[in-house]
Amino acid sequence: MTTPAQTAASIANSMLSTGPLSDAGKQTVSSNALNHGLASSKPVHVALPGEEELFAAHLEGYRKAYAPANLPEEDLVRTVAESYWRLERAHKLENALFQQILKQDDYKDLDSMTAKAMAWSNKDTGLQRMALYAQRIQRTAEKTSAALKAMQQERRAAYNQAKEAIYLTQLAIASGNSFEPALHFGAPDLHGGFVYSPDEIKLALLRAARLEEARARFNVR
Fold first, then answer.
1. How confident is the model at residue 41 (pLDDT cuts 50, 70, 90)?
2. For the chain, where are the E strands, in sequence order?
């Protein structure tokens, strides 16, 4: 005879293999052919069948928020977006699993707090495993976000060094001389993506002049 705990565990396994409970998630072809994307650090499918457009919009939102300037930043942004997408799935599955477990005979006659405490303490319910998945995904999201922030700060700091090239160019112009910044500065990758070319320097000079004009006009210090 199947016990309530075994029934709950079966529900947990079924939910993990079939993904979200939405109509989109129910379009999965089979539990054996599709990775639910919670246990693996590199899931086969981040977006389940039917979720592709929603995930694409989710990812685009992160791209707009972080504005990656190169491929390494783009990779980190994607990992952050994927992690939070998977974390939301884990929380939804956890909540749905909880509701299913509380309907079992062992729990349905208990008050809510007692039932939840017993369900959490019972390893056979699958709730502890689900929480572990969520914790791992959360750590990945936080570590990746920190790495992305550090990378972008380093890039911006390097980009600020372009001011040196601007000052030298201004000096050359004032002296009636020519100045080739590329001969004095390294590759763009070493300077936050800033290209030390005459055209880029001219744009930077123009931007700096317009900013000074705006500060003076609106009395901004």
1. low
2. none
